[in-house]
Write a structure and sequence with these properties.
The protein has about 260 residues and is of the alpha/beta class. A hairpin with a 2-residue loop joins strand 1 and strand 2.
Length: about 260
């Protein structure tokens, strides 16, 4: 349980997230993920990172139960932890391939939206249920996966899209059966890692440098509205209904991860 790293092949670092039952990460989990990604990128022997998750879903966002139990200190921690983890994917000195299965929600969108490439299983679904959770954020990253008007419709409805739909938009590299996901992600990572390591690092820095949107500043701007919702009481009102019988039913319909009561932004 937690964040682990391994080196399945020369030049490839595998970073695996495992927070049962649905990979809704606590504050410490986001920072641990950021640390693992930074360490992988700094290793001169690494030329590509594969970001994967154990269990039935890639990521279900933050642990809402922790926020409900600890209040604003946990909210601030989650804000900072998510920002650190998303930035660590983006700023990783080498390309990052996300291997996505099952649900990829909330903070999961922040991770894959900042990845350099995405390989997904046929059952993968992607979405931002933020408005159902009393939070805001990661529209910055969803906008890197789908066109602008679709991003807005998905955001305002809390609906999800499939891996096949994202592939049609060009944001997913391959969609494969679940049992082939790890192999497909490693295949792409292997192709990347075959390039010159120093040149890859220069290429990653160059591509980041020409991005039209500063993803760090854009996401932090969004987070200000999450905090505003919290201090105004709107977030508490919405979260107070989260997990009740009707809310859980609607959540299951939209996310593809039924009864994930600890999941959130």
């Amino acid at each position: 349980m937690g964040v682990s790293t391994s080196s399945p092949e020369k030049g490839i670092r595998l970073v695996t997230v495992d927070f049962p039952p649905v990979n809704a990460l606590p504050v410490d989990g986001w920072f641990a993920l950021a640390d693992a990604l930074h360490a992988a990128g700094r290793d001169p022997q690494v030329r590509c990172v594969v970001l994967a998750a154990a269990g039935r879903g890639f990521n279900a966002g933050v642990d809402i139960k922790e926020i409900q139990a600890r209040g604003q200190s946990a909210l601030l921690g989650a804000n900072r932890g998510c920002s650190a983890a998303f930035s660590a994917v983006y700023d990783c000195e080498v390309p990052v391939v996300a291997a996505v299965q099952g649900h990829c929600l909330g903070g999961g969108i922040g991770l894959v939206g900042n990845a350099d490439a995405i390989v997904a299983s046929e059952d993968a679904t992607f979405g931002l249920p933020e408005l159902d959770r009393g939070a805001l954020g990661a529209a910055t990253h969803l906008a890197r996966l789908v066109p602008g008007h679709l991003m807005r419709a998905l955001y305002f409805t809390s609906r999800t899209v499939t891996a096949a739909e994202l592939r049609a938009h060009g944001s997913v590299w391959r969609v494969v059966p679940g049992e082939q996901l790890r192999a497909a992600a490693l295949e792409l990572a292997r192709d990347i890692a075959a390039k010159d390591g120093e040149l890859l690092r220069l290429a990653k820095a160059a591509i980041n440098g020409v991005d039209p949107v500063d993803v760090r500043r854009s996401y932090r701007f969004e987070q200000g509205f999450t905090f505003e919702a919290s201090v105004s009481g709107v977030a508490d009102r919405v979260r107070g209904a989260f997990g009740d019988r009707s809310g859980a039913s609607a959540e299951g319909d939209r996310s593809g991860a039924p009864a994930q009561k600890e999941a959130g932004r």
